[in-house]
Each structure stands twice: as C-alpha cells, then as structure tokens.
Design brief:
Pfam families: ACAS_N (PF16177), AMP-binding (PF00501), AMP-binding_C (PF13193). The chain is an alpha/beta fold. Helix content is 31%, strand content 23%. Among the domains are: 83 residues, Luciferase, domain 3 (Roll); 122 residues, ANL, C-terminal domain (GMP Synthetase, Chain A, domain 3, 2-Layer Sandwich). The two termini are 40 Å apart.
C-alpha cells in the first residue's frame, strides 16, 4: 500500500446515525436483483396515476423503449397538485434568492399550483396544445420552473436552452424543434448588472417560420424592442389568467421535453424524454440518493435549469417528492466568493448538490471562506458532471461537510435522464473518486471492444480500463433524438449492437472491490466545467471566421475546469499579416458569439499544418499530447510526422 493509503482513509462508511434514518437500505439492491421489473413497478407507484399501467416494459422495438405501457398520468399534477391535495399546500416549494443581494421570494406549493395553472391557461390561450414545442430561454427565476411545469401540464414539450447560449445557438435549437412559442425575460443579472436577454431571442427568431409568440417575463426592467402582435408580457397574459386549471392525464410515453446536448458532430442533438418512466426514476433517485425528508430538509442543487441536472434535480425530482428547495439566480462569486455559503447559512440548507469544478474553485479561493460561515445545517453533499478527483472529494468532505456528511458522486447523462451510478447514502461505504456501483434497478458494465468484461485482477491490479455500457433498459432512458431515429441508433446502439447495449461514450474501470471509476469521455466531446461541448461545434465556429482555413480542437486537462478547450488553427494566406494576438482575440470572441462564452477556447495556436492520418482524419490524440506538453504518442500513422516540429515551434 502506498503512503497516501495509510495517511487518509480510503473508504468512508456511513455513520450509524445516518444509516438509521436513511431512506435507502441495502434491501433495495436485493429487491431489484430479485425482480427488476417488479421493482420498477413499485417505484412507479410512488407516483399518482390516473390510469394504472398494465405492462412495465415493452422492449420489443428495441432500442425504442416503452415503459409503464397503458398508464396515464399528468407530470405537473404529480409535482404540484397532489402535495396540495395531501394537505401540504403551505409548505414552501421554492425559496428563491435573486442575484442582487437582498432580493428573495418564497413560493408555497399552493402558490406554485396557482402560478402553474395560470400559465397553463395562458399557454392554452396562445394555442399551445399537447405535442407542441415551447422554447424556454430564461435565467434562474421561479417563472422558468412555472413555464416548464405549465408545458408538462398541457402535454407540450419544453425545450429549455441555457441562457448563456448565444442567439445563433438558440436559433438553431428553436428551428430544429419548430417551437411555436418562446418564453424568455427582458434581461438577466450578471454581477449586479442587468444585461439583455430578449435581444438574443429577437435575433434568433428573425427568420423563424414556426414561432408565433414570444412571451416575456419582466425581470430587470431594462428597455426591450417590441414586435407588436408577436411579443407579449408574461404579467399581462399569465397574470390575468385564471389560477385554476384541470390537468389532463397523458400516456406514460407522452413526450415531456427536448433537451439539446453536444454530440460528436457539430449539430446538437435534441434528446427526447417522456413522462412516466422519466418521472419514476427522477423521483426514485432523488428520494434515495439525496435522502430527502420533505418535512424538514432544505435542498439545494446549484445547476442551471438549462442542463439536465436542473431538469431532473431542480424541477422534476424535488417537486415530485414535495421538498423545499433553494433556487439561486446568480453565480458563486457574485457579489463575492462568500455567496453560496451565505445562502446555505441563511436558508439552513441541509442537502447541497454541485459540480466538481466549483469545488476545485472553492479550494482555490481558500478554506477561510467556508470557514467564516456556519454550515452545520448540511447533512448530505453531492457532485455531478465529471469525475471528482479524490483530493477535491476530501476537501469537500472536510471543508464543507465537516467530515460528518456522506458524499454522493452521481454518474449520469442528459441521455440517461437521471442518476445511474452512485452511492446510496446510509448504505454505501464510499471511496473518494469513485461513483461506486449502479443504483438498484440499474445495470452497467465495463467492457472492451468486443464486449468482454474488463475485470481487474489481483495480479494485474486495477489499471485495465474499458467502455462503460448500460446493458439493460432503464425507465428514464432517452427515447430518441428529435427527428433523427437513425442518429439515435448509430450514436448509442451500434457499437454493441450484437449485445443490445447502450454505449455511454465514457471510459471506466473497476477496482478490486468491483466499484466503477469513471475516466472521462472516449469520444470527441469535451467536458468543460461540467458543460458538454463537442470539438466539432467549436471547430465549425472557428472555420466560420473568414480568416481560418482549418481548425482542430481538443480538450486538455485543466486543474479547475476539468478540461479546457485548446484550438489549433491554420490561417488563410490573406491573413498572414494580421497580428497574431489580434487574430486570436477575434477568434475567441467569434466562438463566444457563435456558441457561448462557455465554449471560448483557453488557448488558440496558429499552426502551419495539422497532424492527419493518410485518410485525412485529424489526430486529436496527438494534439492533446501537445496541448498537455506530453511526449507524443504513436505517430506512425501520420501522413507527415514532421508536422509536429512546426506545431511545437508555434506554441
Ligand atoms: C460526465 C450531466 C464522472 C460523463 C448529468 C458523462 C461524470 C457526461 C459524472 C454527461 C460523474 C457526469 N463522474 N463523469 N459523477 N457525471 N459525468 O449530459 O462524461 O451534461 O458522459 O449530464 O458527464 O454530461 P451531461
């Protein structure tokens, strides 16, 4: 054993007190093992169904699944009305903290019911019917959640687009979905300053043939330009609508939402999720992985609603379980680095779920910041989005959790809909850095190219790695890619078609105890601060600039953001005289404009040539070696091995 193993514990068993009161017990694994489908039927029945389902899973059209066949339910009813009907209408659903300090609001479940009903009536008045798509482009304000639930209530699909995306990225998503309505705000706060948001919508829908209306929440009061007939104020339309609305039950497979995510090509994929299965697994995992006690907990997930984590663990999971949660509009450093800890202290947050990149940022800011606050209300911590390095895990446990709280490292994806691999608090003895084992009801394995299990052995140690696959369908699995069934089959189901397994795109390995350690993406998708960005998307933004002839983009390891974007570009000859620095600044701005500031490359290198194979494929693996300053790997398949001298020289 190495020194580090003797200095710090390698496993963290749950405390007896936590285990005694935990929602989850080891019994869950046994139950799921014994009869997986009966187990999922039981979890589905935690929800309220208007018509019970008569079949748990229909996998006859694999890879297109149907879960809870024949069942009917209303997702919004399950997230709102039933808590009010159960007598919990006065429980606070959302404790909202605005970005500007001192601005806050509380909505009880009764308030939420009235707001969602008003919005559903208003949307109906605008002609939104079941099956329609509604784009939502909003900051983190309660109306964003209300808008999502109003769509769900009507059986319309929401397509939430992260408000940090630029107008072209928003426009592409609106067009692909043929959204009828866009819901947005006049502006949003960024470090105390109001900046426009509606402007991007105006630009995005300029050429749209599908958008009939833009519904605008007044958030900041800044001036906006207005298109009469198309643009409507939320406070007029929703504010004046009736606060009562009778929900209709929809089929378990009624599409619930579309969420665009990056794939290995430039075009984002519209991931489709449906109702019964998605809500079942979101609710079940939220209850057991976060151990929520709706009567006493104050839960806070710091994700943005523009990502799947916000959908599942801000909207559908917590609300289906009737919990009280904090919703925070701003960034962790606004107005200063104390903000998150002030929010935890003010609201007595008990469960805190965030991303490793933020934990590493907290580490950099220094421990004196959390130390200045009373964080003793916390009883459970979670992470998601990328693998957490053991050092950051231990810091999180110690500086934030005072070594009292379990940590749940949850592995999942936009496509999986909810958590898949994670410890169960109160049951699992966790190891820092490992997401541990598949949750009860979920099945995964780590395999080689041929589908053989990659098993560690005492002789070989734990270093054999392979691909993570999901070898059995699960309730909250994606049902497809919007408008592109072939791409769905090709992307996820072709690699292990013979076995019928889902290819996750992540590398992984087992340790000697059979726990899973995630190793990052094995495809051309980068993970920057937990945001999925495809190399192809950034390359296409770069070559969109008139000065760029060719571009290759790689994700290089970064201490804070996990990966950072490093681009190599070949300039057009007519730009040979443009000063390098100016060109690089322009290119970085171009990527921010085309996609989002989150996709802005950390480094851009102007190079004379790119390393290519004889078939013309760019060898990103070698560029990653260069970006990370490593020895070059195998260059034998390169068309011209000497290109690296030139690339190195220009770095
Ligand atoms: C990565 C976010 C290691 C992984 C919910 C996955 C993780 C991608 C973890 C999905 C984790 C997410 N440990 N890696 N706990 N959680 N990932 O779609 O590479 O934004 O494939 O969903 O994030 O990102 P997405």
């Amino acid at each position: 054993m190495s020194l580090t193993h003797t200095e710090v514990p390698s496993t963290y068993p749950p405390s007896p007190e936590f285990a005694k009161n935990a929602n989850a017990t080891a019994e869950l694994y046994r139950e799921a093992e014994e009869d997986r489908l009966a187990f999922w039927a039981k979890q589905a029945n935690r929800l309220s169904w208007e018509t019970p389902f008569d079949e748990v899973l229909d996998w006859s059209q694999a890879p297109f699944a149907k879960w809870f066949v024949g069942g009917k339910l209303n997702v919004a009813y399950n997230c709102v009305d039933r808590h009010v009907e159960a007598g919990n209408g006065d429980r606070v659903a959302i404790r909202w903290e605005g970005e500007p300090v001192g601005e806050s609001r509380s909505l009880t479940y009764s308030d939420l019911l009235a707001e969602v009903s008003r919005a559903a009536n208003a949307l109906t008045g605008l002609g939104v019917v079941a099956g329609d798509r509604v784009a939502i482009y909003m900051p983190m304000i309660p109306e964003a959640i209300v808008a999502m639930l109003a769509c769900a209530r009507l059986g319309a699909m929401h397509s939430v687009v992260f408000a940090g995306y630029s107008a072209p990225a928003l426009g592409a998503r609106i067009d692909d979905a043929k959204a009828k309505l866009v819901i947005t705000t006049d502006g949003q706060y960024r470090r105390g300053k109001a900046v426009s948001l509606k402007e991007a919508v105006d630009e995005a829908v300029k050429a749209s043939s599908s958008v009939e209306h833009v519904l605008v929440v007044r958030r900041t009061g800044i001036d906006v330009s207005w298109t009469d007939g198309r643009d409507l104020w939320w406070h007029d339309i929703v504010g004046n609508a009736s606060p009562t609305h009778t929900p209709e039950a929809f089929d378990a497979e009624q599409p619930l939402f579309l969420l665009y995510t990056s794939g290995t090509t430039g075009a984002p994929k519209g991931i489709v999720h449906t109702s019964g299965g998605y809500l079942t697994q979101s609710s079940y995992t939220h209850f057991n992985v976060f151990d929520v006690k709706p009567e006493t907990d104050v839960y806070w997930c710091t994700a943005d609603i523009g990502w799947i984590t916000g959908h599942t663990y801000i909207v559908y999971g917590p609300l289906s379980n009737g919990v009280t949660q904090v919703l925070y509009e701003g960034t962790p450093s606004s107005p200063d680095e104390h903000r998150h800890f002030e929010v935890i202290e003010k609201h007595g947050v008990t469960i805190y779920y965030t991303a490793p990149t933020l934990i590493r940022t907290f580490m950099k800011w220094g421990r004196e910041i959390p130390d200045a606050h009373d964080l003793s209300s916390l009883r459970l911590l979670g992470t998601v989005g990328e693998n957490i390095n053991p050092e950051a895990w231990r810091w999180y446990a110690d500086a934030i959790g005072a070594n009292r709280t379990p940590i749940v490292d949850t592995w999942w994806q936009t496509e999986t809909g909810s958590a898949m691999i994670s410890p169960l608090p109160g049951v699992t003895a966790t190891k820092p850095g490992s997401a541990m084992t598949p949750l009860p009801g979920i099945s995964a394995r780590v395999v080689d190219d041929h589908g053989n299990l990659v098993e560690p052995s005492p002789e070989l140690g734990e270093h054999a790695s392979g691909y993570l696959v999901l070898d059995k369908p699960w309730p909250s699995m994606l049902r497809g890619i919007w408008g592109d069934p072939e791409r769905y089959k090709e992307t996820y189901w072709s690699r292990f078609a013979e076995q019928g397994w889902y290819f996750a795109g992540d590398g992984a390995r087992y340790d000697l105890d059979g726990n899973i350690w995630l190793l990052g993406r094995v495809d051309d998708v980068m993970n920057v601060s937990g945001h999925r960005i495809s190399t192809a998307e950034v390359e296409s933004a770069l070559v969109g600039h008139s000065g760029v002839a060719e571009a290759a983009v790689v994700g290089a390891t970064d201490d804070t953001t996990g990966q950072a974007i490093v681009a190599f570009v070949i300039l057009m000859t007519h730009h040979a005289d443009t000063p390098r620095e100016q060109m690089i600044d322009e290119l970085r701005a171009e990527v921010a404009r085309e996609i989002s500031p989150i996709a802005r490359p950390r480094e851009i290198h102007v190079v004379p040539e790119l390393p290519k194979t004889r078939s013309g494929k760019i060898m990103r693996r070698l560029l990653r070696d260069v970006a990370e300053g490593r020895e070059l790997g195998d260059t034998s398949t390169l068309l011209d091995p000497s290109v690296f001298e030139a690339i190195r020289a220009s770095k």
